[in-house]
Amino acid sequence: MQRSTITPRPPLLAAPIAFVVDERAISAAETTLAYVHEHHLGPIFGATTAGTTCDINETFIAGFSLRWTGCVALRRDGGVFHGTGVPPTHPVAPTVAGIRGGIDEPLEAAAAWVRAELARRSASPP
């Protein structure tokens, strides 16, 4: 079983950071998001990731791309990662009205959070 550890080094970002994801986040993106989720590095907006980290297998059938993991992926606590993915802390789904209007609702929600967090930080003394 392979475990990985990341040790933060200065300089660290002080700006508010939000992550926007959906079921298309797969493999390396999910590994990064698993760290974000586990260590509460920022809010995650959108939908649960694919749950297919580790080696990726892909085949095409009848014009469709099918992807799956080639190994058992576990969370640090031993729970199953494959098939479950990284859940958003702020679930936001695109709507038909948003798509028609050219609005990326998960991105807009994340941007609103960043703006609010910047305002909150500038209003409070250091």
How are the secondary structure elements laid out?
Elements: E1 19-21, H1 28-38, E2 44-46, E3 56-61, E4 64-69, E5 90-91, H2 96-100, H3 105-123
Sequence of strands across the biggest β-sheet: 1-2-5
Number of helices: 3
Sequence of secondary-structure elements: EHEEEEHH
- Arithmetic mean pLDDT: 88
The shape is flat
Strand content: 15-25%
Low-confidence stretches: none
N-to-C span: 44 Å
Roughly what percent helix?
25-40%
Tell me the total number of β-strands.
5
The radius of gyration is: 17 Å
Identify the quaternary structure here. Answer: single chain
- Class of secondary structure makeup: alpha/beta
Protein name: S41 family peptidase
Domain Tail specific protease: 13-90
GO biological process, one term: proteolysis
GO molecular function: serine-type peptidase activity
